[in-house]
């Protein structure tokens, strides 16, 4: 078989979680919570199943859920989106991003993105016959160099892919970035594909600069989200894409022949549960406590933590521990210390190695404590 993705191996998340299982390591690698999700929400899903909501949902998603999402968007971002024509429920955020890219990309197009980058982006671009143009974020702040962005735009640039709060570094776009983004795309036909799956996981009182907040940016955007991150249920693989009606029309052409529709009972449950504003408004505080708890504990180790203002993640420089490659260190940490992490080079196309690994702190305090007790010995 001729591979469509010849440069792709097994995703680092699978590799590191397998190592974690093999060596009974505390898994701070792959990003998922180890604490339970809302019982009220799981009860609502069970109830929906008992009440017979077990057949295909409509292709764009249950209208009740899309209406609840439109209300939420208006409340949070002061933007009116049309639930009928601008919101599509998808099987997860990753799929929503893939479908956004597939909707717009023609062979030979270029997509600017920023490294380190979530590992699905580049394969998603390349499988469409397009070219990824990865630009490095600054180190150690992981900010976008907007002059470099402008210098990298060509007539083939079809889209800029942005992700805030950012995986793996936890950096977030600020108002200056938004102004730069506006200036950069003004007068062009460049699309924005925005990965906002961590919209509620943002700390220190910072606002989330959603594309939905800025009408001139939203007019050229596909904005992608994940219920898995918001409701502590990554295994649900349920998300959505919000895009202007003309874009959504094309997006749904891709979606309808790829998966058609998503798990109905969860959509019934979420349509109602979404009205509970506290469930998402309390998230920054809840997760910031975890971040701060982990940062405090890690002071006992020789890892130097970098700043993180959002997401599930904090990056750590290990220059004081060893000069081995980040992959070698991550493997050794799993085997010898019993803690799984993700080496940051896995998020680079150009295999940059700043000697940094990523820790996931969306865990119970006792899990974080156990991990740090092991890391102190390294
Ligand atoms: N984008 C980023 C940056 C992520 O970290 C994740 C979580 N894995 C996703 C997208 C995908 O979310 P989902 O699990 O809903 O596909
Ligand atoms: N988003 C998660 C992470 O960055 C994992 C997603 C996956 O396993 N594909 O860890």
TrEMBL record:
One of its GO terms (molecular function) is kynurenine-oxoglutarate transaminase activity. It comes from the Bacteria. Residues 25-375 form the Aminotransferase class I/classII large domain. The keyword Transferase applies. This is Methionine aminotransferase. It comes from Lacibacter sediminis. Keywords: Aminotransferase, Pyridoxal phosphate, Transferase. Belongs to the class-I pyridoxal-phosphate-dependent aminotransferase family. Pfam families: Aminotran_1_2. The keyword Transferase applies.
């Amino acid at each position: 078989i001729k591979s469509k993705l010849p440069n792709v191996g097994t995703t680092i998340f699978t590799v590191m979680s397998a190592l974690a299982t093999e060596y009974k390591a505390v898994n701070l690698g792959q990003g998922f919570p180890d604490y339970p999700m809302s019982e009220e929400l799981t009860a609502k899903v069970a109830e929906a199943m008992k009440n017979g909501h077990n057949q295909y949902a409509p292709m764009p998603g249950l209208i009740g859920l899309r209406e609840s999402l439109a209300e939420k968007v208006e409340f949070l971002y002061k933007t009116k989106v049309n639930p009928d024509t601008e919101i599509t429920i998808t099987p997860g955020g990753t799929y929503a991003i893939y479908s956004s890219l597939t909707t717009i990309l023609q062979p030979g197009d270029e997509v600017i993105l920023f490294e380190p980058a979530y590992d699905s982006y580049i394969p998603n671009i390349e499988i469409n016959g397009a070219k990824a143009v990865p630009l490095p974020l600054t180190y150690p702040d992981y900010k976008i160099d907007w002059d470099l962005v402008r210098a990298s735009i060509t007539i083939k640039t079809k889209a800029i892919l942005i992700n805030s709060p950012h995986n793996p570094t936890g950096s977030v776009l600020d108002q200056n970035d938004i102004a730069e983004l506006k200036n950069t795309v003004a007068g062009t036909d460049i699309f924005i594909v925005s990965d906002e799956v961590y919209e509620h996981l943002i700390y220190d009182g910072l606002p989330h600069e959603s594309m939905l907040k800025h009408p001139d940016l939203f007019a050229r955007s596909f904005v992608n989200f994940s219920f898995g991150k918001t409701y502590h249920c990554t295994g649900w693989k349920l998300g959505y894409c919000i895009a202007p009606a003309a874009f959504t029309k094309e997006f749904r052409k891709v979606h309808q022949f790829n998966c058609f529709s998503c798990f109905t009972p969860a959509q019934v449950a979420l349509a109602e549960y979404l009205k509970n504003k506290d469930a998402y408004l309390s998230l920054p505080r809840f997760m910031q406590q975890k971040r701060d708890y982990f940062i405090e504990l890690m002071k006992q180790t020789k890892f130097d933590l970098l700043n993180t203002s959002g997401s599930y993640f904090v990056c750590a420089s290990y220059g004081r521990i060893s000069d081995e490659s980040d992959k070698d260190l991550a493997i050794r940490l799993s085997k010898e210390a019993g803690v799984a992490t993700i080496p940051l080079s896995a998020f680079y196309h150009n295999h940059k190695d700043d000697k940094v690994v990523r820790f996931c702190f969306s865990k119970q305090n006792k899990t974080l404590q156990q991990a740090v007790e092991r890391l102190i010995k390294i």
